[in-house]
Write a structure and sequence with these properties.
Number of helices: 16
EC number: 1.8.1.9
Distance between the termini: 71 Å
Bound molecules: flavin-adenine dinucleotide, NADPH dihydro-nicotinamide-adenine-dinucleotide phosphate
Helix content: 25-40%
Shape: globular
Radius of gyration: 25 Å
Structural class: alpha/beta
GO molecular function: flavin adenine dinucleotide binding; glutathione-disulfide reductase (NADPH) activity; thioredoxin-disulfide reductase (NADPH) activity
Strand content: 15-25%
Largest sheet: 7 strands, mixed
Family: Belongs to the class-I pyridine nucleotide-disulfide oxidoreductase family.
CATH class of the largest domain: Alpha Beta
Number of domains: 3
Cofactor: FAD
Protein name: Thioredoxin reductase
Length: 536
């Protein structure tokens, strides 16, 4: 078979590039193949986002927000009898999985109507010598096996968009066998119940957040800090809010072993012996399926579910990259690309999560794929711009940001050349309903009300006060952050924000009346009043 473009990977980036190239008249073949997770989870066309990422996550996030509102706001807002409502995990999973199946189907239909040939097989790039033997005069050759038969496609160019998969450290006894990852959680047929989440970035905190508000007992094991790379003040605010809402955190802690209760524990007792910890305690018959987790500090605790969210690894292991001459980054194991998504192998491009140094976000993979297709087949020359990409962490209070963190702004411009404006407050529905702290974080019986949930923060570069960092912690920050990202792209300044009339009563209006700078040392927490506004 011959093609203009072979796309390896039918996820966010690969599908977007395949459809755009076909629209521009190219003959396109797209491969997608899912390796089952160690726990046996597998799924259909569409890649990480639709099957085990953004889409199932946002449905669970919304279920969690409902739980949060029911726990804190339903009764004061006049809804009685909500105590009678029960949450059924399996019903949520059913809704999530049915929706994913619809999307899998519509993605297949989308490829068909775009004229892209879809092959459900694992593709491998052929090495140069094999390529010569196969008779290809130019371009690249990709091989695959379908129904036991080995086949080839020759293409003018190849796009690698194979994404990544969660990683579980092999040096933690029991982890690979007993832990689940985000590949399994959204289709888990049993309730997660008491859960340990290992890791402290996007995936860990989002999973911990939604599980907490689905009313499970959740602990996060943090090796160093939460949300590395994000604005520190905002990351710490998110952690505080999560704590006050009931998520527990074990800080500067690491897991050393997992053991299903009742099983012999040779590896773990060796490890614990080294540390001098008592391995006999807590291993009592406390429910057949429980997992005993041992930590580096010597702590031991039983959990029903352990979710590992300690990062992802690119799916390049059996792709034939080395033989095909594709340079990989030695530290990340990801493909090195230039600003036009070109790898070191002529005719081979890469986009999305598989690329070194690119943000691992769906719209990034999609846009990079569409722009590449236009450059290859549409005579365009527009490159993908990787700066000022907005993102949101859904915990389930949402942290949206675009541009620089305060730390990065200081490093880039110097402390004296930036001004930071801050405003902390509670949105009206939260303060009117007097949301309460989780019992575990109350200092005493009078310590009830939550710390203001909202934090609005902008970082301006002097002297024109151009905004170089936008940070918003709010119930619906995802929606507002998109609009501010557009404004940042258009060169937004503090004067522009001040010149805009706010919409009252919203959280977003806080950005249009900010007066307290970090430099002033004044408190930036609203004394009372009305959410993001200035009345009262
Ligand atoms: P993928 O979507 O991973 O697609 C790659 C495809 O290639 C997969 O189907 C894979 O099985 C297949 N493949 C691999 N090797 C081969 C081969 N040899 N042959 C054929 N096929 C192969 N991003 C956001 O923007 N917002 C969010 O809210 C968000 N939430 C997330 C939540 C979770 C839990 C996770 C895990 C990720 C989330 N992301 C989110 C990130 C987002 O899902 C990814 O950035 C995006 O899916 C990357 O797209 P991609 O095209 O690079 O790869
Ligand atoms: P990250 O690579 O962002 O973070 C990994 C986390 O695991 C860090 O907290 C790290 O801690 C910790 N960690 C790493 N190794 C270990 C270990 N051996 N033991 C204990 N902890 C460890 O990975 P994620 O899986 O959270 O996210 C991957 C990407 O997916 C994100 O970068 C994001 O782009 C994308 N995503 C986007 C979402 C969104 O848009 N809302 C949601 C979810 C994912 P340390 O800081 O100490 O290294």
């Amino acid at each position: 078979m011959e093609a203009d473009l072979v796309v390896i990977g039918g996820g966010s980036g690969g599908l977007a590039a395949a459809k755009e190239a076909a629209r521009l008249g190219a003959k396109v073949v797209c491969f997608d193949y899912v390796e089952p997770s160690p726990q046996g989870s597998k799924w259909g066309l569409g890649g990480t986002c639709v099957n085990v990422g953004c889409i199932p996550k946002i449905i669970m996030h919304n279920s969690a927000k409902l739980g949060q509102l029911m726990d804190h706001s339903a009764a004061p807002l006049g809804w009685s009898g909500t105590d009678g409502l029960t949450f059924v995990w399996q019903d949520l999973v059913k809704t999530v999985q049915l929706y994913i199946k619809q999307l899998n189907f519509s993605y297949r239909r989308g490829l068909r109507s775009a004229g892209v040939e879809y092959i459900n097989a694992k593709a491998t790039l052929l090495a140069a010598p094999e390529r010569a033997q196969s008779g290809a005069k130019s371009g690249r050759v990709v091989e695959y096996t379908l129904k036991g038969e080995r086949k080839e496609v020759r293409a003018k160019c190849v796009l690698v968009a194979v994404g990544g998969r969660p990683y579980i450290p092999r040096d933690v006894p029991g982890a690979v066998e007993l832990a689940v990852t985000s590949d399994d959680l959204f289709s888990l047929s049993r309730e997660p119940k008491k859960t340990l989440v290992v890791g402290a970035s996007y995936i860990a905190l989002e999973c911990a957040g939604f599980l907490t508000h689905l009313r499970y007992d959740v602990t996060v094991c943090v090796r160093s800090i939460v949300l590395r790379g994000f604005d520190r003040q905002c990351a710490e605010h998110i952690q505080l809010v999560m704590k006050e809402q009931g998520t527990k955190f074990l800080e500067h802690e690491q897991v050393v072993s997992l053991q299903r209760v009742g099983e012999p524990d040779v590896a773990a007792s060796d490890l614990a012996g080294d540390r001098g910890a008592d391995t006999t305690s807590n291993t009592t018959a406390d429910g057949g399926d429980k997992i005993l987790v041992r930590f580096a500090s010597g702590r031991e605790e039983m959990f029903d579910t352990v979710v590992y969210a300690v990062g992802r690894r690119a799916c390049t292991q059996s792709l034939g990259c080395e033989a095909a001459g594709i340079a990989m980054h030695p530290a990340s194991g990801k493909i090195v690309v230039d600003e036009l998504e070109q790898t070191s192998a002529p005719g081979v491009y890469a986009i999305g999560d598989v690329c070194h140094g690119r943000p691992e976000l769906t719209p990034v993979a999609i846009k990079a794929g569409e722009l590449l297709a236009r450059r290859l087949f549409g005579g365009a020359n527009e490159p993908m711009v990787y700066t000022n990409i907005p993102t949101v962490v859904f915990t389930p209070i949402e942290y949206g940001c675009c541009g620089l963190s305060e730390e990065d702004a200081i490093t880039r411009y110097g402390q004296d050349n930036i001004e930071v404006f801050l405003f902390g407050f509670n949105s009206v529905p939260v303060s009117a309903c007097h949301w309460k702290k989780a019992l575990s974080t109350r200092k005493d019986e009078f310590d009830l009300d939550v710390t203001p949930l909202n934090l609005s923060k902008i970082i301006c570069k002097k002297p024109d006060n151009k905004i170089v960092g936008y940070h918003c912690i709010a119930m619906n920050a995802g929606e507002t952050t998109q609009g501010y990202a557009l404004a940042l792209k258009c060169g937004l300044t503090k004067d522009d924000l001040d010149a805009v009339v706010g919409i009252h009563p919203t959280d977003a209006e806080s950005f249009h009346s900010m007066t307290i700078t970090r430099r002033s040392g004044e408190s930036f927490m609203a004394a009372g009043g009305c959410g993001g506004g200035k009345c009262g």
